[in-house]
Amino acid sequence: MVLQSSLKNCLQLSCILRTPKAGFRSTTSGSLIIQSTSNDVYQNLAVEDWIHDHMNLENRQVLFLWRNSPAVVIGRHQNPWQECNLRLLRQKNIKLARRRSGGGTVYHDLGNINLTFFTSRKKYERMENLKLVVKALKALRPELDVRVTDRYDILLDRHYKISGTAAKLGRTSAYHHCTLLCNADKFVLSSVLKSPYKGIKSNATPSVPASVKNLFEEDPSLTSEMLLDAIAEEYATQHQTDHHITLINPADETVLPGINNKTKELQTWEWVYGKTPKFSVSTCFNMVYKDSVLDVKVDMDVKHGRIEVCNIDLPEQWLPPALSSELVKSLTGSKFCPNEITTLVTTLLRVCPQDEELQSRWNLLCENMIMLM
Amino acid sequence: MAAVTALRSSYRTAGRLVCIHRVRSSSGIRFIKSKYVCVFDKSALKFSHQQRLFRTSAVSCGQIVQFKLSDIGEGITEVTVKEWYIKEGDSVSQFDSICEVQSDKASVTITSRYDGIIRKLHYNVDDIAFVGKPLVDIEIDASKGVSPEEDVVETPPMSHEEHTHQEIKGHKTLATPAVRRLAMENNIKLSEVVGTGKDNRILKEDILNYLAKQTGAILPPSPKAEIIPPLPKSETVPAAPKDRARKIPVPVSRPIVFSGKDKTEPVTGFHKAMVKTMSAALKIPHFGYCDEIDLTQLVQLREELKPLAQVRGVKLSFMPFFIKAASLGLLQYPILNASLDESCQNVTYKASHNIGVAMDTEQGLIVPNVKNVQVCSVFEIASELNRLQSLGSAGQLGTNDLTGGTFTLSNIGTIGGTYAKPVILPPEVAIGALGKIQVLPRFNGKGEVFKAQIMNVSWSADHRIIDGATMARFSNLWKSYLENPASMLLDLK
Question: Which residues form the BPL/LPL catalytic domain (chain A) (predicted)?
Answer without folding.
Answer: 57-243
